[in-house]
Amino acid sequence: MIDNSFLIKGQINSNIYGCKQSQQISLKPFTLTNNEQTDADAKLQKEIGESGKIPGHIAIIMDGNGRWAQTKGNVRIFGHKAGVESVRDITESCAQLGVKHLTLYAFSTENWNRPTIEVNGLMKILVNSLKNEAERLNENGIKFVTIGQIERLPKKCQKQISEVTELTKDNDRLQLCLALSYSGRWDITEAVKKLAHQVQDGKLKPEDIDDQMIGAHLSTAEVPDPDLIIRTSGEFRISNFLLWQLAYSELYITETFWPDFRRDELYKAIKSYQKRDRRYGGVKNGYSKSVSSSVLNQIIS
User: What pLDDT, on a 0 to 100 scale, did the predictor assign at position 33?
Assistant: First the structure.
C-alpha cells in the first residue's frame, strides 16, 4: 500500500525546532510521501516556525472518508484507503515542523456499529499500513503508540501494534499516537475506576482527588494535552474524542474531507492557532486596569 523508497538526503533548518542557525543533523529529513520537499515548502515551514509558536501536540479527528468516496462514486472503504495518504503527508509535515505529539482519531468505539465488511476492511488497512511503515518510522526516530480498547481489535491488529510499539519505543523525534477503539467517556470512566480501587483499598482519600490526579490516570497521562484540535469534513462536534484533555485546546474546523487534507490545510490550521490568544480563563496579557470598590458597587447595583 505504501511505497518503500521515501528517504531523501538534505538539510533541516533548525529554526523550525527553536534554534538560531541551520545545521546538519544525524537524522535524515523525515518523509513518507516519496516526494522530495520543495524549496518553496521548506521556506513556508520556516516562515511558520518564525511567525509564532508551533503547537507541541496536534490531535486530529479524521472525518469524511466515506463521504469523499461517495462523491467519487465508490464504496466507503475506498475512502479509508485513500486517507492513508493524508496520514503520511500530515505525519511528515508535523515532523518537519517540529511538532512533538500527533494524535489521530482512527477508530472510535462507536465505529464498531458500522457494517462488518467496512470494519474488517479498516482492520486490514491498519495491519498493512503498520507492516509497511514500521521500519521507516523507526529509522526516522518516530515513536508509535496507541490509546483505546486495543484488546477489542483482531489478534492480527494487536500483534502488529505490539511489534511496532516495541520497535519504536525509544524514539523521541515525534510521537505518533493512533486512537483505536477509543472513547473519551471510556477514558474518563477507566480513570475513575482506578481511583475508586485506590479509595477502596485505603490508599487514597476521596477529598484528595483533584483534576491533576484524574488526568494522571488517563490513557494520555504521559503526554501534554493537545494544543490544537483539527476536525475535517466540516462537522462541528467532538465525537467523544479526548473529552477531558481538550478543555483548553484550540479548535480548527475545515470543510475538507480527510482524504483531501494535506499539509497546505495543516499550515492554515497552525497559522490560525498562532493568532489565538490562549488566556486559560484569565485576561489578556498586559491588562491591569483596576476598578475601585465604589465604582464596582455602582456598576453591579
Answer: 66
